[in-house]
Amino acid sequence: MKATLNQLHHQAIDWERELNFYKDELKILNGRLAEVVSKNTQREVLAQAEHFQNKFIILSEQISVMQHELNLRNDNINKLVSESPEHIDERISVIRGGMLSQFKGLANSIADTRFEFNEYLSKVM
Hints:
Layout lengths: L1 E2 L1 H35 L3 H41 L8 E2 L5 H26 L1
Antiparallel strand pairs: 1-2
């Protein structure tokens, strides 16, 4: 596939915003989880709470890894721009490296976790 450096830059900005949104969402979900734990002492409720806490940690780690990969990608884009700034709107061959599929997978994981967590909340609150 071919894209311009300008398009790749704007895509990176969108992905950065998406990752920040997910970070904020996980903070909110963790806050709701803390509220549930503080109001419930039943073993089953706490076991399920630990399950969600672990899922939130894993998702947070995935976000951090993707943030790092995005930063590396941005560094490469910036290097290309500095090498030939007059060609930023020319189409170049792009090796995707699977970032698009990683973002789709992360979005699906977060959506599934949010849905599952909301079902859990409806049962325990």
